[in-house]
UniProtKB/TrEMBL annotation:
UniProt region (Disordered), positions on chain: 497-545
Species name: Antrihabitans stalagmiti
Gene Ontology BP annotations: DNA integration
Compositionally biased residues, Low complexity: 499-514
NCBIfam families referenced in this protein's UniProt entry, alphabetically: transpos_IS21
Family matches, as InterPro entries: Integrase_cat-core, IstA-like_C, RNaseH-like_sf, RNaseH_sf
Protein name: IS21 family transposase
Any one GO molecular function term: nucleic acid binding
Amino acid sequence: MAFREVSVYEVREVLRVWLGAGSAGPAPGLRTIAARSGVDRKTVRRYVEAAQAAGLRRSDPPERIDDELVGAVLETVRPARPAGHGAAWEALVPFEEQIRAWVNGDGETKPLSVTKIEILLTRQGCTVPYRTLHRFATERCGFGSRETTVRVVDGDPGVECQLDFAYMGMLDDPDTGRRRKVHALIFTAVYSRHQFVWLTFSQTLTAVIAGCEAAWGFFGGVFAVIIPDNLKPVVNQADQFSPVLSSGWLDYSQHVGFGTDPARVRSPKDKPKVERAVQYVRGNFWAGERFTDLADAQDRVVRWCAETAGMRMHGTICARPLEVFIADEQPKLLPLPAVAYDPPILKTVKVHKDFHAEIGKALYSLPGQWIGSTLDARADRELVKFYHRGQLVKAHPRQPAGGRHTDPSDLPEHKAGYAMRDLDTLVATCAGHGPNIGIYAERILDDPLPWTRMRSVYGLLGLVKRYGAGPVEAACDTALTLDVISVRKITSMLERATETTPPALPAAAGAGPTRFTRDPSEFATPRTHLHAVPNSDHTSQERNR
């Protein structure tokens, strides 16, 4: 029979039966005592003999079996061992350092198993039971050592809520037409253990915030502190002392009003309540169920949280979580925000050389000093704000995708009008150099598509810069008099310095000789030859000559 240490209660029962307690007849023998107390007959004999040696008699009442008597019996039967261990344990003490080296290993050899250590000790002449060696290696040499843990108090009601993602299974996604992984974002109240589950296909910041908004509505308020795992949307850089939270999560927590205390990396003990809840949700709700889609699963899990998980008898708090939550926690939650959270677009943008930066597929202008710089941008439904090292540098009304909002003051003064196609400002600039220049600019822009003529007006301003306002004013006055609207003509006049020369008007038709004009005398016939009749004979004679 294997060794089994008899408990104090069993020793007390052996002695009580030996005295005849509960027996109507004579006192039972050792065999009967062993059968009634469940102890071996030889063991019964040893304890009875030790009790008799301590002064117990069969005629004594059962009250004689007190703690002092039982202690004396046990001291006789099981004498105290030196240092609390037997001879086999003491035989291992000289080999403690060697056993520790085998257990921990070194840079060249790997740690050894207790079975192998037993073989090596036997070769050195130390033969002990395996169980003794295992206890020795565990207690003294660090074999299979485990860190101890302590239970942390739950804290005040309504303060802490632990948060964690957990994989549930697969569901059909009607939007993509394929099966996708379903994750559960589980919220567990530390004090009452009441919980809420949000199912999602993704683990993005948008999904986490959507789950939080649904949770606050389910709980009827907001917990003061959220203890999440190191979720990527929440924690940018994990650290034991100073974790860096993401900008999006900080923006949301500031809007709602709760604090965040992330758990350490690979430290489930930092959030044990929600860690245990993961197995419960997966096994009690998800396992064996069939859902048509994610919406159906979400409706059913909300009912499950309230009716099943909330109304079960919790083994730790020995109460129903929903009842404890309503009585103790819900009145102490933070109120829900008066304004619903508007999920913003948070990103880092670069200001390009066209004085604009892009966010949400729309363009927004910034002053020239920020060209080439990287700014932090936040865009909600109403405004787009740009920050540099936390300082607001520009704000614009939100534009739809493909839109643009440009502040003329952000552009260079000499280019703002052209970029904005500001005709009035352009004409006013020309008029500032002279009234005729302004009128001439108006005449140039008098077109069904005036912005196509802006380049000509800028050319006119270039002439002012080159020749001065006076000559250009005179040239425009002359051109207006002749009703000639052409910047090229103005340029020609200024190059030849004829802007002040009176123009030569063209002569009227027929006022002067032309190229092929002939004198009338060239076409005249002598009148003497018109009246003479030549003699035919005379003529013949003259011809014969």
